[in-house]
Amino acid sequence: MSFSFSFYAMEDSQSVATLIGSTASKIQQLQKAFAELESQRALTLNLRWKELEEHFSGLEKSLKRRFHELEDQEKEFETKTRKAREMLQKREAAVVAKEQSSLMRLQEKRDAAVFSITNALEKHRKLSSGQPADNGDNGELSVEEKQPEDIKSSFENGNLEVKSYPQLVKLCEEMDSEGLQKFISDNRKNLAALKEEIPWALKAAASPARLVLESLEGFYPSEVDGKKDANLLGLRRTCIMLMECLSVLLSNLDMVSVLALISEDIKEQAKIIAEEWKPKLDALDMDASNGNSLEAHAFLQLIDTFGIASGFNEEELSRLIPMVSRRRQAADLCRSLGLSEKMPGVIEVLVKNGRQIDAVNLAFAFELTEQFSPVPLLKSYLKEARKASSPVKPGNASPTAQVCFLLVCLLLAKYISVCY
């Protein structure tokens, strides 16, 4: 519409300019007519013609002056309009960027809150059923204390160096995988600080990738039942953490250095280990793992860290996702392994198996909330939890049901606030 206005304004200005330009010729024509009239009459009209000529000349000058004033005003208006439009566009861009930043911060807080609540619920469920709580004691190492993204951020900012644990550098220089495992186990109470320094320490190893691969040797011992042995669970957590730390190191190197560290020989060794682990995963029960399987997580992390995903079927890999859906690294692993397109199918499997909370988390992580609406899923979870729980006294819900109710209420409040 502004274009049409400018076009017509320009056309009118040209017309006015043309008319003003023809004023002189019109005056000449009038002078000739006046002279002819004078020749037809006896009395002279010289005095009157001069008056008419001065009058018309004054009108012409006045019109020209006014016309130029209008042209200047039009240019000034166009300049102001253009500046206002540019300012509006900048403000709109700033608002969009601010909204995006706020949504990202809200998503991070939501993920952290959901993870804490689901962990609390899982521990409560295990305590209620008499199972040992998975809380990092008795030799277990919790790898959830600090995420690889946090370590990577510190690495990129140059904040990482081996200050607190110089022994890490020595163990890496000596390529002592067993010593590295034992050192981490002995210092499990300070695991967060260790995780910050391990990527830096790995740089001191002659072959960081080979050192990490060697540390995986005890992941599947032949004589110990991993489900009951707490020390083995701790070792498995350490294996996963070392692979994550190696990924952090690799992500901060240039392509030439990465190819040098992850050579074809290293990839081949990683493939051999993955092929050995793969049949053991077939015996895992998705319901029993409850989305927190260390075995499935380690297998997927191994494939991702050493870049060997192309050697495995995407369908087979996607079937492992429900076994790690409760772990905070699940979404990032899926993206890194190129399984984003498989997420709708994974979420459907979770919903069918009564894992609505994990389904909602993945739906938000992969922007699938339109296809899998969070509120109905969480309401369905709460309904099933109420049915499954047996009341301790008439009219009183069991502690598990109360925790479930609190969990879903919190999640509903968060997701509704995000959506609306």
From TrEMBL:
InterPro entries: Frigida
One GO-annotated biological process of the protein: cell differentiation
Matching Pfam families: Frigida
Start and end residues of each stretch annotated as Disordered: 125-156
Coiled-coil zones: 20-90
Composition-biased stretches (Basic and acidic residues): 143-153
Source taxon at top rank: Eukaryota
Protein name as annotated: FRIGIDA-like protein
